[in-house]
Amino acid sequence: DFSIDTSQSGISLAIDCIGNKDLLYADEKVSLICHRADEAFFARQAQSVLDAARHGCVVVSAFISSKEREVKRLLMQESLPVIEVMNDGFSPQYHPYGTSYDACVAGKLVQLSPWAFSPQSGNKLTREVCLVTNELVRVISKTPDDWWKRD
To answer: HSE of 40 in the Cβ direction (CA atoms, 13 Å)?
Structure first.
């Protein structure tokens, strides 16, 4: 388990993790949240994220949008460090698969979830779930969504 300091709000948040938990404590992290309003600038955002990861930053994202998933594919191809916020809890039998499994084995990925597993949830991706996962990305990375525009 990993916990986030929310001392200002008095709330304690425990999070389940699978993978290399050391990535959560990295000094340099950047967020990847793709907004529709910035779609025309996606290539610039993707390049900024990849450059940051190549220079030692850990990329934090929920990889919800197709653009975010595209960047995840590129990050995995280069074996760059990633923190993935999942949109559902982990079942007792859960394990990463495919390139995510390989990245976990290589110590380049940690997946985390603030939700308890529920077989009834059916992995429904709602607006509220997206808002929560993206806020968690912001809190963990400690970077604003538009950090890449400031380069």
So the answer is: 1
